[in-house]
Structure formats: C-alpha cells, structure tokens
Amino acid sequence: MTGIIISDDTQQLATPTLPDFLQSDLTQCASLPSLPTVAIRVLEVAGYPDATLNDYAHAIERDPALTLRLISLANSAFYARHHTETHSCLEATSRLGLDATLAAVMSFSLWRDRQADDQIQRIWGRSIVAALAARYLAEQLCPDQSNFVFTAALLQDIGMLALMAVYPRDAQELYTTMPLSHSQISDGEHTRFGCDHPSVGGWLAARWGVPASLAQAISDSHGEISTRDGIPRFCLRLSGLIADAWLSSTPSQLLAVLISKLEPVDIASSISLSELLNSVESQLPPLADLFDLTMPFAHDHEALVTQAQHLLFQQTLSLNARLDAQQQEIESLRQRQTELEERSRRDPLTGLANRAWLEEQLHLHFALCREEERTMSVVFIDLDHFKKLNDRFGHQTGDRVLERFGHVLGSLAREGDLAGRYGGEEFLIILPGETAKGAQRFAQRIAKRLAETPMEMIDGRELFVSVSIGIACLSDGGFSNGRELIDAADQSMYFIKRTGRGGISLYGH
User: Fold this and answer.
1) Which of 377, 400, 378 minimizes the C-alpha distance to 389?
2) Per the database record, which ranges form the GGDEF domain (predicted)?
3) Cα–Cα separations (whole angstroms), residue 289 to 6, 59, 125, 128, 294
4) What is the end-to-end Cα distance of the chain in Å, rounded?
C-alpha cells in the first residue's frame, strides 16, 4: 500500500509554483480549508506500509458522525452491489476501498457547513457529478485506477474553497457570475490571483500530505482533453466537462461542444454518453443526500445526446457553409490579386508585357542563362515612320496600329518567350535559349507577317507598316548584365534606321 506522510509535499508537484504573494497569503490564512484530527489520523495510518483496513476503521471510529456517514455511503446505491447492509466502520471501509474512503473522509471533513451558500453548493455539486462520471469512465477504460480517478475528480475544485477563504470578495465577484466553462473561470482566476484553482488545489492537497500522484492529478485536472497524459488523466478531465454540461441550463449545447472535442480522441468511440449520463443520474441522489446538496437531475438522456448531436451537425453545416463562403471569398481575392498583378505587368493598349516587367524578367533570364551557361537573345523593334502616321491619320489610328501590332507579336511569340512594349512605338522580345541566327529567323517571321497583314483600313485602303529590328545575343559579346544586352540590340536597330529602315541587324555580325 502506498504510504502517505504528513508533510508539505508542494515541492513535488510537477507544475509551476504559485505566485509568491498567493502562496504567502494561503500559508497565513487562518480559515484555509483544513482537515480535523480524525482526517489527519487517517492520513497518518495511510503512511504505514503495513496498515490494514482495521487500522483505518479504528482511526475513523473516533468520530461517530464521520463513521455514520461512511456507513451510509457504503450502503448507498453507488456502493451497495449486494443486499447485505454494512453496520460497522470496518465493513464500510472494506466496501468503499482505500481511495474512496480517503476521499469520503476528506470531503466530509471539508464539507462542514451544511447551510453553505450557493457558490459552495455549486462547487461541491460539480465535484460529485464529476466524480461519478470519472468513476464510470475509469471503470470502462482503466478499471484498476477507478478509485484514484474518483478521488481526484471529487477533490478537483478544492482550490476554489481555498481562494474563497483567502480572497472572499474577489472570489465572490468571480464565482457569483461563474460561467459554465471552467476555462473562463480559469482565465478570471489568472487575472485576479495569478494562477487558477486546480493549481491551488494541488498545492493545498500536497500541503496536507496526500500522495504526490493525487495532488498532481488535482493540479492537472482541467487540462486538455486527450490521452497523451494517460487514460486516468483523460477520464478526470472529461469528467469535469460532463459535470459542466449536467449543471448547465443548456446541457445539449455543452454536450455538443464536448462531442466535438472527443472526435479526435481514439478511445472516444468506446464511450456511450447516454449510458454515462444514466449511470450518473442513478447514483447521484444518495450521494447528494449524503452531502445535503440540492442537485438538478437530467431526464431522457438519449434525447439529450441526440439533440446535442443534432446541434453539432447543424453547427458543422453552418461552419462548413461559412468556410465555403470564406474559401470563395479567398479565391475571389486571390483571383483579384492575380488579375491586379497581371494588370500591373501588362501594357494596357497592346496587352503585352510593360517595360518594368520586361526589364525584371530580362535580368532574371540573363542571370539564369549565365549560371547555366546557356545563351539568350533579345529582339528590339521600332515601327518605321510612326510619328508621320500619327500626324497624318491621328493618334486614334496610331493606337489601333500599336494594338494590332501587339497582337501580331503575341501570336508569333513561342512558349517561354516574352514580348512587350518597351515604350512608344518600341517593342522588345526576350528569347531565352535562342541563338542570334534563331532570333534572326524569328525577326524575319515578324517582317513577313507585317508584309502580309495590314494594320489598319483607312478610307477603304489597307495600311501596312514596316519595322526596324535589332538583335543582340548573349553569346556575341561580353555583356555583364541585361541592360547592356538591350543597349546592343537598340544600337543594331538604329543602324537599320540610319540605313533605310525596314530591315534586320545582328549585333556583332
């Protein structure tokens, strides 16, 4: 049997210590929840390695009222698994087991004020419902730990009693409007006291000298619902949420939240909420009577769980609808962003790349081709006599010519090429991986298409345009950057301009 040594075991808790001011106030509080002589004697007996049930019974019998309560508890529906009644403390202790006996002794000792206010009634009421739920869960999932889980669940909120004793006004303000969610209670406690009541409860239990494992379980009782910390912790933490739902004015809503939290837990499929709630309801009345508590009793648990599942289904549908709407909005925004980015790269008149995008892509391709030891070419084009065309036929005609020439370039550009308007009537085509001869053939196709395709109809007459084209290839010069490559192609283009226009010139050839 694990012994209990009466000492301050708070340093053994694997949790952060309490804030200094709180620990000091707790230590100095004269009205802090404490255990009477009989309860301390029971703990002393538990500290003996060879202690027997008879030793426990003799220690408890020193308090006749406590003895009667234990016998009453042992004869309650919760523990009376056969028809034989217990009449002695030894029989009661044997039936309850060591953990439950210890829990009952401590609970009866702490629960002295039978006319306590509503807050204390609610605290103990939640603890009893949680203990019954925890016991049921543990019997299904970890039977050998059921007494331990029951005890930890029953004492999981004793930290509230301590905080109410030390800071009655703050605790009264917080707990009078106590929300149904213990996570909200925890947030309020952290704001007011620097930590929450499970930590205080674990510290208090350790100070009494209970086993470190029990004090730690109390401290951890309000953690995340998962099995990572072991099945007993899972049962303990889940029991509190079940108690919250039981005591709620809207139990189906909290059960729906609970069901959603259980979905990712593997062992959740082995838990029947309906059977659990029925078990709690059948065993709650005698325990509530034992503690002089007025408890709400739920009805038709099958309908309650069904309603919770329906609420969860409706919430899931609503959430999916919102997610779909948000996804559509995100897609719309993404599409809008893509359109804006595309528009920022395009010349609005011709639909080709604008100068900024041309230069950015040229620098990228230039660096990549140099790194991969590949060649590339650029083709610089200027429409011949475009100023005269504007002066004679007007700028609207000139814009239509530019637009249609842009369509010609776009139709001739291959995948991987980038054609754009460099400015005014000047155009640039980037040809990654293309040699000077290959670029020349591309330029010849442009000239041939222009010779065959009128760019405008004026008074029923076709208007053809010619272009001057300069080509520069990375392999034909010691170019250090893309800007120098453009300048070389520009120089070649101007050579054609000076020698009659309507031709093609290769830089360095």
Assistant:
1) 400
2) 374-509
3) 31, 25, 11, 11, 8
4) 100
Answer yes or no: are the C-beta atoms of 418 and 356 closer than 8 Å: no
For the ranges 276-280, 324-328, 368-372, the lowest mean pLDDT is seen at 324-328
Query: What are 198-235's pLDDT values in tens digits?
Result: 999 999 888 877 778 888 999 999 888 888 889 999 99
For residues 12 and 347, the model is more confident at: 347
Alpha-carbon span 43 to 1, nearest angstrom: 13
Contacts of 255 (CB under 8 A, 6+ apart): 245, 273, 304, 305, 308
- H or E stretch at 381: strand 376-383
Specify the range with the lowest mean pLDDT, choosing from 50-59, 137-146, 192-201, 323-332.
323-332
Rounded CA-CA distance 256/205 in Å is 33
Position 207 scores a pLDDT of 83
Distance CA 386, CA 424 (A): 9
Residue carrying structure tokens 């360095």: 508
Q: pTM of this prediction?
A: 0.57
Domains and CATH numbers, the chain: 34-110 (no CATH), 116-314 (1.10.3210), 355-506 (3.30.70.270)
Tokens of 78: 């919760």
Residue 29 CB coordination number (10 Å): 14
Could you say which DSSP state residue 145 is in? G
Contact of 297 with 285, CB cutoff 8 Å: yes
- For 401-422, the pLDDT digits (tens) are 999 999 999 999 988 899 999 9
Judge whether 357 and 455 are in contact, CB under 8 Å. Answer: no
For Cα atoms 223, 227, 232, give the angle at the middle one, nearest 5 degrees: 75
As a residue count, the chain comes to 509
Q: Which residue stretches of 413-481 are H helix?
A: 436-452
Q: Extract the tokens encoding 371.
A: 């790194």
What stretch of H or E contains 60?
Answer: helix 53-60
Which residues are CB-contacts of 195 (< 8 A; sequence separation ≥ 6)? 16, 18, 19, 22, 189
Whether 109 shows a pLDDT value over 90: the answer reads no
Please tell me the distance from the alpha carbon of residue 105 to that of residue 116, in angstroms, as a whole number.
19
pLDDT digits (tens, 9 = 90+) for 239-269: 988 888 888 777 777 777 777 777 777 787 7
Q: Which two tokens stand for residue 176?
A: 């009078």
Report the relative pairing of strands 467-473 and 461-463 from DSSP bridges: unpaired
Tabulate helix, strand, coil % of the chain (nearest 5): 65, 10, 30
CB atoms within 10 A of CB 430: 26
How high is the pLDDT of residue 112? Answer: 57
